[in-house]
Amino acid sequence: MGRILVVALLWAVSGQAAFAEDRFSGSPFDFTFEELAPGVWAGVRPDGPRFPVMGNTLFVISEDGVVVYDGGGMPAMAEQVIAKIRSLTDQPVTHVVTSHWHGDHNFGVFRFGEEFDNVQFVAHEFTAEVMNSSRINYIDREMGFVEQNFEEFNKIVETGVDSQGNEHSEIDRAGYQDIIENRKQIDYEFLRAKVTPPNVTFSDKYVIESGSRKIALLFLGHANTEGDIVMWLPEEKIVATGDIVVLPSPYAFNVPPRAWSQTLRNLNALEYEILVPGHGDIQRDTAYVDLLIETSDSIAAQRDAMLAEGKTPEEVQEALDFSAFEERFTHGDEYIHNYYVGFFERPFRAAALKAVSGERMV
Question: Is-cis flag, bond preceding 197, omega within 30?
């Protein structure tokens, strides 16, 4: 999940109390499965912002095997996917595709290698680069994370004040209470988590022929990372995007706005009818992606205009205006608002300037 994302999660947790009773039920690692077309199943992690944030999954069953996309951010999630597959078919899993390197989509997929022989783990070359580098070592820092911070979280729940003297609302306190109640399972799953680098890589396109199905893996451009890939099912017109598309509001850590806009346009050019995002609810039109394009285009245009006027990067970052978009993402919902600020607006301000600095967007 990464330290920067964990910090954002703990900040964004301040929207959770209003939904604690009716949304925070069951394990934070549960999927809800839905068949989108014959033999094509999506698993959605309900309530995307819930800590710890975990990605969705998609799998495709053919007469010769099963191809899985983003098979589980934690082992418990991969095990749910495996159990669901086995309830539907006797065919083995042949391929597990990783959309990008962030662990909330893949720290559990080693379980497929333990359960099925000769599984091919497929990803973009950039994903392989990162997963074979020291950057992926953040997995070690997350082990025992909640237990290590238990006293601080409990202090907030009991007193409403953290160790720095900052006051927290009732909404904040309920969010931390949910984390505390699930701390043993959360820390246990992080303890089990493993990095699984791909053993098959590609740069632009890779086609998996599984029985009569042709499953296309496509690199459409830089978005959430330099190596995001989508799974495209042209016959069914279903696409799974990883974190190129995230709901209820986007992720924008290290996302270059102009490149992201173009990638999203390339995505729309597929003319999909169903979109399975990296997090959040399944989409059945382009409205949300269109909003992402409009927003990223606006931020890029504002940035470029202000830099051309001679404003400093710091001035530009502060002045970027998101007011035309906030309501369209949050719909006035406080829960989504905190998620929107912590995961999208705040990091996108920094990313928009980083994108023109020459620094690599990792």
Answer: no
- Among candidate residues 314, 338, 315, 318, the one with its CA nearest the CA of residue 326: 338
pTM, full prediction: 0.91
Q: Which two tokens stand for residue 189?
A: 């799953």
Question: Can you give the pLDDT at residue 268?
Answer: 98
The tokens of 358 are what?
């020459």
Question: Could you give the count of Cα atoms lying within 13 Å of 276 in the half-sphere of its Cβ?
Answer: 32
Alpha-carbon span 224 to 251, nearest angstrom:
7
Model confidence at 19: pLDDT above 70: no
* Inter-residue long-range contacts of 322-331, CB under 8 Å, 24+ positions, other chains counted: 322/295, 324/298, 325/291, 325/294, 325/295, 325/298, 328/291, 329/248, 329/249, 329/250, 329/291, 330/248, 330/249
Residue of higher predicted confidence among 161 and 234: 234
What is d(CA 74, CA 138) in angstroms, rounded to the nearest whole number? 15
Handedness of CA 232, 238, 240, 245 (dihedral sign): positive
Nearest Cα neighbor of 61 from 184, 233, 192, 176 is 233
Give the integer Cα–Cα distance in Å for 91 and 97.
Answer: 17
- Dist CA 257 CA 360 (whole Å): 14
pLDDT for res 209: 96
Look at the chain and count its residues.
362
Cα–Cα distance list, 149 to 20, 156, 162 (Å): 21, 11, 11
